[in-house]
Amino acid sequence: MNSVAQPQQPGIDRPERRIRKQRKTLRRIGLVAAGVAIAIVVTGRAFAAPLPAHTAGPGCMTDSGAQPNGKQWPAEPAMAIDQGFPYSATLQTNCGAITLSLDAARAPRTVNSFAFLAGEQYFDHTRCHRLTTESIFVLQCGDPTGTGTGTPGYRFDDENLTGATYPAGTVAMANSGPNTNGSQFFLVYADSPLPPKYTPFGRITAGMDVLQNIAGGGARDGAPDGPPATDVSLESVTAGQG
């Protein structure tokens, strides 16, 4: 994996050769466009913010059009979960439901934050803004701005990294470097050889077919890394014991 300095937006590292190639491309086209806010995701791709509305892909419905609430907090929420109990979550997307088992024992701060944000309806009506289809195979969500730059206003430390791997079905935190977790997370739809830098905090227990259907549509414009060609919205996210 690459050894270049981490950028400021939450994401996942890509091979160094792709970063060098994309940086050359960015130098050619420039990074300044009048009246357009440019955000650089971890791969160096440029996304304009926010993403526009598009037609839903196969197996998906057009999203509700409702907007995220955009709440912000000055600090990580106080611990409110019980590490001794199982927790689960349901991501109700416009393409179907995905259910998760959350690992409160090994990643208590991460699960606590995720459950808190779900309870505050922070994730509701947010777009999953990134799909990768080469080297790593993930759908990244949890950013209310849809740009790869959004946060809930706080950060918290990594957890559960010793021996971490990312097989299909893993749910893990995206970040912009060590101990920079916020709200963005990714769902792994095929085994991905990532280094142990991203806190794994759950597993997909149902709805893998929904995720793979989204991934099957690829990224927009056929790119190996970018917004999904199929627009994906988290219409609601719930989390709790059980």
Automatic annotation (TrEMBL):
Q: Where is this region: Disordered?
A: 216-242
For this protein, the record's Pfam families field holds: Pro_isomerase (PF00160)
The record ties this protein, via InterPro entries, to: Cyclophilin-like_dom_sf, Cyclophilin-type_PPIase_dom, Cyclophilin_A-like
Residue ranges, compositional bias (Polar residues)? 233-242
Every copy of the PPIase cyclophilin-type domain together lies at 85-239
Q: Which CDD domains match?
A: cyclophilin
UniProt-listed Enzyme Commission number(s): 5.2.1.8
State the superkingdom: Bacteria
Q: What does this protein do?
A: PPIases accelerate the folding of proteins. It catalyzes the cis-trans isomerization of proline imidic peptide bonds in oligopeptides.
Q: Which PANTHER family does the entry link to?
A: PEPTIDYL-PROLYL CIS-TRANS ISOMERASE B-RELATED (PTHR45625:SF3), PEPTIDYL-PROLYL CIS-TRANS ISOMERASE-RELATED (PTHR45625)
Q: What is this protein called?
A: Peptidyl-prolyl cis-trans isomerase
The species this protein was found in: Nocardia mexicana
The organism that produces this protein has a lineage beginning with: Bacteria, Bacillati, Actinomycetota, Actinomycetes, Mycobacteriales
